[in-house]
Amino acid sequence: MSRKNHKMIDGRLLQTNKKYSQLKMKQKEKIAEWMFQATRDYYMKKYTFPSDKHLEEVVDIVYEKIEDAEIWIPYGEVFKHYKSKRSDINKRIRRSLNEKKEESRIEKVCFMNMCMIQDDKGNVLALDKVNDSYTGTTFPGGHVEANEIFQKSMIREVWEETGLTVEAPKLGGLYHWHKSGVHYVITLYKADKFTGELKSSEEGRVYWIPLEELKTKELATGMEHVLRILESEKVDECYMHLEADGYVGDLY
User: Fold this and answer.
1) Distance (Å, whole) CA 218 – CA 34
2) Residue closest to 24 by CA, chosen among 86, 92, 73
3) Alpha carbon of 141 to those of 4, 63, 158, 198: distances in Å?
4) Is 163 left (phi over 0), alpha (psi -120 to 50) or beta?
5) 44: how many CB neighbours lie within 10 A of its CB?
6) How far apart are CA 144 and CA 110, in angstroms?
7) For the residues of 137-182, what is the DSSP string, one character each?
């Protein structure tokens, strides 16, 4: 074997004029990822990409990993390759940061609704909820189905639970909370016009009751905040945040 352009380093005969293109594909893939990681770390620390004067800071980190992996390639070849690829690396970092930014704005949401229906005698329509974990006296309502309009969803849910079809409902506010990575949002409506014949459903018994008397009953969780929103001209929203002793409502 000719030893021209070779030298002995740590007991290994290494080619001093080895080109980056001569590396194996897996070695190139490793180095490419190290270049990406080192450039990203540089950007996250200094909020800018390395200029020509600072390329060595990144290449030094990458070359240390190359040596640790016992990959032989001259430093100059690594530097030259990084310089030729840094524009693509910078673009990849920008894309990854933008994707993370977009992901941080996305959350899983469950939309629901509830409607306070009033008659011309000062009564409201109450529902004694019995069929799931949400029990107690509340107003009719339910879940918004996929591709369903919020108001139409509420009208459907009220009809299913009471037999009444509300007309010209008005949005009164929002009641929401986070639990197990899901944002639960209830849109609150008010209505005083309706048609149909009142009848109960498997969700529970429905009946007319004076508003003040309803407040004395065993209300479902959060109903005190719902009533505050629907009765007030100044309160539009309640967010339930979790504390050590349970959820606590903040009114806005």
Assistant:
1) 62
2) 73
3) 85, 63, 6, 15
4) left
5) 10
6) 8
7) EE-SEEEPPTT--HHHHHHHHHHHHHSEEEES-EEEEEEEEEETTE
State the pLDDT at residue 130: 85
Instruction: Using DSSP bridges, classify how beta strands 108-117 and 182-191 pair: parallel, antiparallel or unpaired.
Output: parallel
Contact partners, residue 72, CB within 8 Å, separation at least 6? 12, 14, 15, 18
> Residue with structure tokens 């992996």?
69
- List, in order, residues 6 or more apart from 99 with CB less than 8 Å away: none
Asked whether the beta carbons of 118 and 192 are under 8 A apart, the reply is: yes
What is the pairing mode between strands 108-117 and 170-179? unpaired
> Which run of H or of E encompasses 110?
strand 108-117
CB 205 within 8 A of CB 219: no
* Separation between Cα atoms, residue 46 and residue 40, nearest integer Å: 10
Does pTM top 0.70 for this prediction?
A: no
Mean pLDDT of the chain: 91
Going from the C-alpha of 114 to that of each of 86, 104, 141, 152, 218, the distances in angstroms are 55, 29, 4, 12, 18
| Encoded tokens for 32 | 């490419």
Angle subtended at Cα 176 by Cα 170 and Cα 181, rounded to the nearest 5 degrees: 145
Per-residue pLDDT at 75:
93
Residues contacting 229, CB < 8 A, separation 6+: 172, 173, 174, 175, 188, 235, 236, 237, 238, 251
Q: How many CB atoms within 10 Å of residue 9? A: 10
Q: What pLDDT sits at residue 7?
A: 57
